[in-house]
Design a protein that fits this description.
A hairpin with a 4-residue loop joins strand 22 and strand 23. The radius of gyration is 47 Å and the shape is rod-shaped. The protein is of the alpha+beta class. The strands form 5 sheets. Strands 2-4-3-1-5-6-7 form a 7-stranded mixed beta sheet. The protein folds into 4 domains: about 45 residues; about 140 residues, 3-Layer(aba) Sandwich (YojJ-like (1), CATH 3.40.1700.10; about 90 residues, RNA Polymerase Alpha Subunit, Chain A, domain 2 (Beta Complex); about 100 residues, RNA Polymerase Alpha Subunit, Chain A, domain 2, CATH 2.170.120. Helix 2 crosses helix 11 and helix 3 runs antiparallel to helix 4. About 20% of the residues are buried. It has 13 helices and 23 strands.
């Protein structure tokens, strides 16, 4: 549980924005391209990327390299092959459609007008071949079409298939409310079970329906019948209303029942959740999968100290912390961003033991603690007071055998020291820094500092922190006494 809390605290607000923003972008890609054949290709590409990450994590170098090359080539192929579908998605009149809402077919075909035209041509025995594309791109299947781009009207449809019109033998492709192409050549079906009276027009309609998800309407000029071809299904139509219903269902214009609407809503919400999970996984893989470790020596800061007390001594002045985080964050990490604080609010005079935990350590977001030492700090607290102590010279070494110290004068002979009450009550004198006797060859004046121990002791204001030592030395062999020089 503590590990989870540490991880949650390590998440920055930038990480939350990063995950939410990219999750929404991925979700919008799904919403915009789910009605196109490109969506299945993108799903396959995503699966390849997942396998590539698995290959990297398991150390399969050649496999990882091979999949990475495939995905790079596939990305280029997608842009070239599906450029029309990508353009149709991005070319929207309302920019809001790209960022919000669930897009519907851009323009609804005038189904009633088309149905009337088809029924009228069947009655007049005018042969016709009309294609209504589905989600799949027809560019790789349909050939030699003539660009038309005319707004649909009953007269236009009839004129296209009028027998004197040079383009009447080919197929007309209708998208939205416009006739996009005429005289298009469709692939012929190779099925052996088709009726013998099916001519080229019918076999072309069946061939396109088998190869794509388009709906093809065929009007026979010999029999005046209407047939609908979709996938491997051939449906005869006798009424204008039936033809109109089939067209509406194919174009997504039919009224949706509540169950279907509920299913679509669940699908959209499920896509949003999956997008969030996928982006979170990618973020975790990048930010935590490329962790870097660094060890820093961080000084301890003491807070909320009672003004009536002072820190006399502490077992350590800093702690060694091993930190982890993403390479990017660790490169931008500054030592002053790491702080270790110890609260002295409940401290008492004498020895105080404080346990260091993660709560005592302040870190930038995204950085986490791997380990630290030590975990315990001993702090000696005391009430400061002032005490006057005599000064004593601390000699070290030995004088030459022929010399003897006749007199030593210390100025000042006593100083006032400020320190903890518990320390000063056991102190009777204060020493100077060590003066080596073997360096003295004659009477002299020496200026030295006080040797205050522990270091928390200090000289009170108004007292001298420099001690003057006048040393008169006598040469026993010569019977002379040296006179100390002027200091």
């Amino acid at each position: 549980m503590e590990t989870v809390l540490i991880f949650l605290r390590s998440i920055r607000w930038q990480d939350v924005v990063d995950i939410v923003l990219n999750s929404y972008i991925l979700f919008r890609f799904y919403v915009l391209f789910r009605i196109t054949s490109l969506f299945r290709i993108l799903i396959g590409l995503s699966v390849l990327l997942i396998f590539q990450r698995i290959a990297v994590s398991t150390g399969l170098i050649v496999t990882s390299w091979f999949i990475q090359g495939i995905t790079a080539i596939a990305a280029l192929v997608i842009i070239v092959v599906f450029r029309n579908e990508i353009r149709s998605v991005l070319q929207v009149k309302n920019i809001k459609t790209l960022f919000w809402g669930v897009p519907q077919p851009l323009v609804q075909s005038p189904v009633q007008m088309i149905a009337e035209s088809v029924v009228d041509m069947a009655r007049k025995r005018i042969g016709a071949l009309i294609v209504f594309p589905g989600k799949e791109n027809l560019g790789e299947v349909v050939q030699s079409g003539t660009f038309w781009d005319g707004v649909i009207s009953k007269e236009m449809i009839t004129s296209i298939f009028w027998e004197e019109n040079p383009v009447h033998d080919g197929a007309a492709i209708i998208e939205g409310n416009r006739v996009r192409e005429v005289a298009a050549i469709l692939p012929l079906s190779r099925r052996q079970d088709l009726p013998s009276y099916y001519g080229t027009r019918h076999r072309a309609a069946v061939g396109l329906a088998e190869a794509t998800d388009a709906l093809v309407v065929v009007v026979s000029e010999e029999r005046g019948t209407i047939l609908l071809m979709k996938h491997s299904t051939i449906t005869p139509v006798f009424k204008k209303e039936d033809l109109q219903q089939h067209l509406q269902e194919h174009l997504g214009m039919a009224d949706k029942d509540p169950a279907r609407l509920r299913k679509e809503k669940i699908e959209i919400w499920l896509a949003a959740i999956i997008s969030f999970i996928m982006i979170t996984g990618v973020w975790f893989n990048i930010s935590r999968g490329m962790d870097s470790l660094v060890t820093l020596e961080v000084p301890i800061e003491y807070m909320n100290r009672n003004p009536a007390m002072e820190i006399i001594n502490a077992s350590v002045d800093s702690i060694k912390i091993q930190l982890g985080g993403s390479v990017t964050l660790m490169r931008s990490l500054r030592p002053d961003q790491i702080r270790v604080r110890v609260d002295l609010e409940k401290s008492v005079p004498g020895q105080n033991v404080f346990t260091i935990t993660n709560d005592n350590i302040s870190l930038p977001p995204g950085i986490f603690i791997k380990s630290f030492t030590p975990s315990v700090v001993d702090v000696m607290m005391d009430v400061p007071e002032k005490k006057e102590l005599p000064v004593q010279v601390d000699w070290t070494g030995k004088l030459p055998d022929h010399m003897r110290i006749e007199k030593v004068t210390v100025n000042p002979s006593a100083v006032q020291i400020i320190g903890g009450q518990r320390i000063l009550e056991h102190m009777e004198t204060v020493y100077t820094e060590k003066i080596p006797l073997d360096s003295i060859r004659s009477s002299r004046t020496i200026v030295v500092n006080l040797a205050l121990n522990p270091p928390s002791l200090k000289v009170a204001p108004g007292s001298k922190d420099k001690i003057t030592v006048e040393c008169i030395v006598k040469n026993i062999d010569a019977g002379q006494t040296g006179t100390p020089p002027n200091p």
